[in-house]
Amino acid sequence: MALKNIIGIDHAVVMVKELDQAAENYRQLGFTVSPRGTHSVHMGTGNYTIMFDPDYMELLGVLAATELNAPARAFLDKRGEGIERIAFTAVDSAAGAEEIRARGLEPIGPTDFERPVTLPNGTVSAAKFRTLMWPTAEAPGGVRIFACQHKTRETVWIPELMRHANAARRIKQALIAAAEPAKDAAHLARLIDREPQAEADGAVTVPSGGDRADFVYLTLDQLAKRYPGVPLAGLSERGGAALVLVSGDLAATEKALGSAAVRSGPAICVPPAKANGTLLAFVAG
Predict the structure, then answer these.
(1) 68 vs 42, 127, 131, 149, 237, CA distance in Å?
(2) What residues in the chain have per-residue pLDDT under 70?
(3) Three-state SS for 208?
């Protein structure tokens, strides 16, 4: 039975070493980046968001070592920058935690936290969240998964932040490198009660739910064949590798990306070395 309180992909978390520098890098790629947020003290992290509809990207950095960000620090030490975890939307985090527990797993959380938000009119409000995580060991393809309940959607999905010079509109796919794609896809499918779907090139897709982005598990060789001509330096053989983004105007995308753009078949890509460890592939909407 499908999870009732946890639905498709909400956002992808790109772990970065130098938070402000990463935000400037993404601005140079034509993204509108939110003002910097600082999370509650027990989280020990700060972020910038890149808002789409209905999902978004999060650039996340560690500001102070805490127990809750130990896995994120371990990721940076071992793997460097890149997609460290992916969030689902939680309708109700507490109920979602009970659904996970009923499946024999012990969830982490729910955890409440917030960050101040400066709104376009200059007033300061707060973005408030309640998150829950699957056990740290349950990370299909080396990517942790969690669910995020937005208590204050109006302070996160701000219209002025959802318009991007590169015409990015939403996430279509989250691509995860795996030596055994079918095995890792089956692992995720068990955790979220979805059916994996084998692709012609050997990759395996797992729908995340609703109209949200799909997970795609594939080897680095399969990724290279999907995006020929795009340097993959910096990607490891296991873990979050790429985000496929829907563009409303590929000509605007190519112009905004400038020298970072690499044409690859129908996609316009940014190599991971130029996007903090994450291959970005823009495709027509």
Answers:
(1) 7, 19, 12, 18, 26
(2) 1
(3) coil
